[in-house]
Specification:
heterodimer, A: mainly beta, five-stranded antiparallel sheet, 7 helices, 39 strands, 35% strand, B: ten-stranded mixed sheet, two-stranded antiparallel ribbon
């Protein structure tokens, strides 16, 4: 028996060696192509450069509305396009122009870009980039770029393996990968120009956010607050990929780039090394406060705005103090990264209220005086109107049902706590509103300078926080809160609200069965577009909220729509389906609806989602006949 | 040239036949498909050096099966991406009250332990030891949105906060032993005492250059309900009841051998860990 075995082995070894050459060939032939690119067709390059759009005055100053060169349309993050060919009269005639399936059945949160008659899209992990030629019928692929993203990155990402988009600047496409690479590609050919590694999945870091390019610098933040990561933002030279500046969101002032020019408005943000002193011992080293959301830029003030994630990984009891600089918004000098001001939405965050939502920069009257403001529909349930030069909160008004706090004290800038709703391990706290997902999560708003309204896609969810639950990570048992989310007052889990920031009130609201986890787009013809998790792409009258058109797509929608002018002069609308993300984890993760605490309690609120939608990942582009 | 090509073709065919033959032979042998972390000593690693690897082999031998691994870091989504995608059928260690899987009878019970340097003679046995107020204490962090290991809650309840230092249980996954840092910190004097899950403490304490004391914490449960002692069981898919029952039988039969493996790895155990057998 043994003898026979031995001979077999020897034979096998010899023949394997003989076959090696041809085998290798087969493997190469069958392996995934790392990159395929075709030389650029003669695309016109005379269109306005990206980055010129957007401005201090908000959407009014946006440049070329035929294109969409950055995730939020412009630096002011208005997601407003002046295009008006598609209007209330003809919107019902919209028909499919072309579609493109990524073949990746995970949450698609990224909006496409359109530059120089080319559409650029990025998929969830493994973060493929495709360039589609809009000058040809059916928009064929111009090139595809397939980075080699580490498989293990999937195990580190907290809430689905999403990517929130690309950025374009000066002939280059900028991409962030889940395994912490920031990459510059030639927009015409898809050739990699530089590739800089910014973090380490082995300590829990990932990148999911879309970069923003400001004055030749690519701004990139990290994700992974749950994993004991230290939040940071990095500015890379767009030309070379070299790090120009890097600012941490916890730790000593020198790491946070806090110096003489740091002038926060409120007293509780003033003092030396608060990024250390507002934490127990050295908890700031693993303190979270990551940057996984959206960035805005004001060219006049030369300030970049971004929010910071929740503090981690200790439970709130164990991190007494404000836990600076988590759950707040930073204004930094775009050239040097120096902090100019900071405001904390949720000091000593109790509820996982990351403050990563987008800052919409507009000029509007406050008390009869025109102010440069920053509008934020925040996770904690308030629309903040802030002076974006100083960080002063001018007003903070609930846009959904809130009981976790009792208002924002404008003198101190701090939320007024509701102690009845404070979670502690071993203590049951019921009906906390909003839930950890917030009244609004990452799903971006749109602002129309024509209607003066902020269009907010959001959630209506509450949660119970109770008991203890034995769990297990890396061979170590622990006990966690048993979080269950469910619909808030009214029973609908989502809402789409048109908000008047001047009057500080909702003008109209549409209820949706599921959280509106995509994003909004508003156009010059006063139409607002958004998608729902049950797969409807909708067009509403921006002034009245009246539904003008809707189209059912293949899968649930968790990404924002965009609009552009095609080479034929027609206006187009583009949107991805592909349910997933934190809210859609129950579908993409094939989770058991009986696990009420799955996806950190979100699965409980989404038990019926699998009945409404299945996995997807298709780009749909619509236009008029 | 033609001859050589023919020979090559023949040998390739032979290889294919052999591989096919192996596959056939394998198909006839039962497989015990285990979902495990490739870098998580003392539990498991890809070189199969962990005690869970050893117990898996033991179970496989008992059922005349061959162990096959699906490697995946044991973090959030581990069950979802391994057991629940049916690429593997068995998780070697889950708490007996774990509700993401169906569980076997527990096969050991361990406790969180105090780890101190023997030469310091700190003799800490209880969370109520007053010296904990001033000592530097290392604790494990899991980072699952505010969920902490039980010792963190126990210390917090006693007002002990500012003198804690956290060590992520994931550690740096590039390290050979990502979970060892907290035990090394005691040996190096970075902290005076660490409160660590028993298997990690027991195993890594033995490899340190100085002698470390490993003492189960008391009380075993803080009220209203915060246990520091956990029964550990095998986990299978919720619907695999027959498989679970088979594993229960094997666990009972192999109890002495399992116990010997746990001893070999220095796994601290407390109390009884299984129901009395009929």
């Amino acid at each position: 028996m043994r003898l026979v075995e031995k001979r077999k082995v020897r034979l096998q070894a010899r023949s394997v060696a003989a076959c090696a050459g041809s085998l290798l060939f087969v493997l190469i032939a069958c392996g995934p192509a790392e990159k395929t690119s075709t030389p650029p067709r003669g695309t016109p390059s005379t269109l306005a450069p990206a980055g010129a759009s957007g401005g201090a005055a908000g959407a009014d100053a946006s440049g070329d509305d035929g294109q969409w060169t950055m995730p939020a349309k412009n630096y002011s993050s208005t997601r407003y396009s002046a295009l008006d060919q598609i209007n209330a009269q003809n919107v019902s005639q919209l028909k499919l122009a072309f579609s493109f399936n990524t073949g990746i059945p995970r949450g698609h949160e990224a909006a496409p870009l359109v530059v120089n008659n080319t559409m650029y899209i990025v998929t969830p992990f493994p973060n493929y980039v495709y360039a589609l030629d809009l000058t040809q019928p059916g928009a064929p692929q111009k090139w595809a770029y397939k980075p080699r993203v580490e498989q293990a990155a999937q195990g580190v990402a907290c809430c689905d393996v999403v990517n929130r988009g690309l950025a374009y600047d000066n002939g280059r496409i900028f991409l962030n990968t889940l395994d912490n690479h920031s990459i510059a590609l030639d927009a015409n050919t898809g050739q990699e120009i530089w590739n800089t590694k910014l973090g380490e999945i082995n300590v829990g870091e990932t990148i999911t956010m879309a970069p923003l390019v400001v004055k030749g610098k690519v701004l990139v933040g990290n994700s992974g607050g749950e994993m004991g990561v230290r939040g940071k933002i990095t500015a890379l030279d767009a030309g070379s990929g070299k790090i120009v500046w890097q600012a941490y969101n916890t730790g000593p002032d020198k790491d946070v780039l806090i110096g003489a020019s740091f002038k926060p408005y409120y007293a509780s943000d003033k003092g030396k090394d608060l990024g250390v002193r507002t934490w127990p011992s050295d908890a700031w080293k693993v303190g979270g406060a990551t940057v996984w959301g959206w960035l805005s830029y004001d060219p006049e003030l030369n300030l970049v705005y971004y929010g910071t994630g929740n503090p981690g990984p200790w439970n709130p009891d164990q991190r007494p103090g404000d836990n600076k600089w988590s759950a707040g918004v930073f204004a930094r000098d775009a050239d040097t990264g120096e902090a100019k001001w900071f405001y904390q939405m949720s000091p000593h965050d109790l509820f996982d209220y990351d403050a990563i939502n987008e800052s919409v920069l507009i000029d509007m009257p406050v008390g009869g005086v025109k102010r440069k403001v920053l509008l934020r529909a925040e996770r904690n349930g308030y629309v903040y109107v802030m002076d974006r030069a100083t960080g002063q909160v001018l007003s903070a008004t609930p846009f959904g049902f809130i009981n976790s706090t009792k208002g924002i004290d404008l003198k101190s800038g701090r939320p007024i706590e509701n102690t009845e709703k404070t979670p502690h391990v071993g203590i049951v706290a019921r009906d906390i509103c909003p839930s950890s997902s917030g009244t609004k999560d990452f799903q971006p708003t749109a602002f129309s300078p024509r209607t003066g309204l902020l269009y907010i896609p959001h959630n209506n969810l509450c949660m119970d926080y109770e008991g203890v639950e034995a769990n297990y990570i890396a061979g170590t048992p622990y006990v966690g809160a048993n979080v269950k989310m469910y619909a808030g007052p009214g029973g609908h889990r989502g809402q789409f609200t048109a908000w008047d920031p001047v009057a500080q009130k909702a003008v109209w609201t549409v209820n949706e069965i599921f959280p509106v986890w995509g994003g909004a787009l508003v156009t010059g013809s006063n139409i607002v577009f958004y998608g729902t998790m049950d797969g409807w792409f909708k067009a509403l009258d921006a002034r009245s909220g009246k539904e003008l058109w809707k189209q059912k797509l293949g899968s649930g929608i968790i990404s924002p729509p965009i609009t552009y002018r095609g080479p034929d002069g027609k206006q187009y609308l583009a949107i991805f389906d592909g349910v997933g993300g934190w809210a859609g984890a129950i579908v993409v993760g094939d989770m058991d609806p009986r696990d009420s605490t799955g996806a950190l309690g979100f699965a409980n609120a989404m038990k019926d989602l699998p009945k409404y939608t299945t996995k997807g990942g298709t780009l749909y582009v619509f236009t008029l006949p | 040239m033609r001859v050589r090509r023919a020979a090559l073709l023949a040998s390739c065919l032979l290889v294919s036949a052999l591989l096919y033959g192996c596959a056939m032979a394998e198909a006839s042998q039962r497989k015990l498909r285990v979902c495990a972390d490739p870098n998580n000593m003392p539990f498991s690693n890809s070189r199969q050096e962990g005690f869970e690897n050893r117990i898996a082999s033991l179970i496989a031998r008992d059922m005349s099966a061959k162990v096959e691994y699906t490697w995946f870091a044991q973090r959030r989504g581990f069950i979802r991406n391994t057991l629940n995608t049916s690429v593997c059928d068995l998780v070697m260690g889950v708490p007996a009250s774990f509700d993401l899987t169906l569980v076997s009878e527990p096969y050991y019970r361990s406790s969180y332990v105090f780890v101190t340097r023997h030469d310091r003679r700190l003799a800490i046995k209880s969370f109520d030891d007053p010296s904990l107020r001033s000592l530097r204490i290392g604790v494990q962090l899991v980072g699952d949105d505010g969920a902490n290991t039980p010792p963190v809650h126990a210390l917090d309840k006693r007002g002990i906060r500012g003198n804690l230092k956290g060590y992520m249980v994931y550690g740096d996954y590039l390290d050979a032993n990502p979970g060892a840092a907290i035990v090394q910190a005691v040996a190096k004097g970075e902290v005076d005492v660490a409160v660590v899950w028993g298997p990690i403490a027991g195993y890594f304490a033995r490899g340190q250059p100085v002698k470390l004391d490993v003492v189960p914490v008391s009380p075993q449960v803080d009220l209203p309900f915060m246990p520091f002692v956990f029964d550990i069981a095998l986990g299978v898919r919720r619907q695999d009841k027959i498989f679970r029952d088979e594993l229960d039988t094997i666990l009972r039969r192999e109890r002495p051998a399992i116990s010997a493996i746990l001893n070999e790895y220095g796994i601290p155990r407390v109390g009884t860990s299984t129901r009395p057998t009929a």
